[in-house]
Amino acid sequence: MGLFRRGPKRDSRDTPRDPAFSFFSVDEAALFRGQVREAFAEQGLEVTLYADMVTDSAGRQFGLGNLAAVCHNDDRGPRVWGDLARRHAGMVLRTMDGPSALETLPPERIRAQLYPRVISEDSLDPQAFGYARSVAPGLYEVLALDLPESVMMLTDEALEPLGEIRQLRDRALNNLRGLPVEGRETVKEAGGTRFEVIVGDSFYTASRVLALESVVRHVTGEWIPPDGALVAMPFRHQLAFHVIRDATVIPSLGSMAAFAASGFEDTPGAISPYVYWWRGGTLTQLSAKDGDELRITVGEDFHELLERLTARDRPE
């Protein structure tokens, strides 16, 4: 998985855009939805198409947002959308029509496959996920069951037979720390900007911000100092960090803010377009959108940190 995405040759942005998926033109969206209908039909299921989902005769709904983003980001272009749709339809129906893993797997096997996931508030049903822990404004941590073809986010009801939430979270975090780092890229720019990007196909790559100490230790061989780190998790397959050691945090902050905002757009599993200050496990948001403009907003603590580092690095 590359760091910077290059889209395939597609309809110009000047062509009329689809209301539900603006990264598609109207014609591309029609092609995409037609491929989705055919994919479900090949599985023996006739569906009714809507802007962002399909439904079957039993009233089951299948959202299309994630699949649309996957198709949009595949650099092979529309020629593979049919294959992607067929794979998606098969996986969804096998998951929905088969027995629940919560009923077939023993409790210890479920605990061994538990992982914490960071998701946006838009993806959360607060009534079903009352245990969800806030990790930053608009971001929450939930527990998920990792399965061969899918990831099942577990509700309060699903977790109840498995034990106490705190112990389940501890087990999930230990499982997260044990995951390998699939890929790593270093971003370096003129002016001192430098940050690391962890990339991978795992659905938990970005969620490793919850175990940042172990990730930084694995990647750099060093511990995070008391001043902490900058982090960004634009979508589920990327985690960026800059360990704060000197005044290079200033140019790195601006570059990471732009990186997060760009990576968040039109991606499957989008999490956050912002950059955060990680300190002792607490996340403080440092960037924000003001209309179409990106701005950096720092509080008193971070401002004092910048002044201290700048003064220390200033030539005598």
Describe the structure.
There is one protein chain. With 316 residues, the chain is of the alpha+beta class. The protein has 3 domains: 26-97, no CATH class; 101-177, no CATH class; 183-313, no CATH class. The chain contains 10 helices and 15 strands. It has helices at 26-42, 65-73, 81-97, 101-104, 107-112, 156-159, 165-177, 212-220, 249-264, 300-313, and strands at 48-49, 53-55, 61-63, 114-120, 133-136, 139-146, 151-153, 183-188, 194-199, 229-232, 238-243, 275-279, 282-285, 287-290, 293-296. The strands form 4 sheets. The protein has a 6-stranded antiparallel sheet with strand order 8-9-11-10-12-13. Strands 4, 5, 6 and 7 form a 4-stranded antiparallel sheet that branches. Strand 14 (287-290) and strand 15 (293-296) form a beta hairpin. Helix 1 crosses helix 3 (81-97).
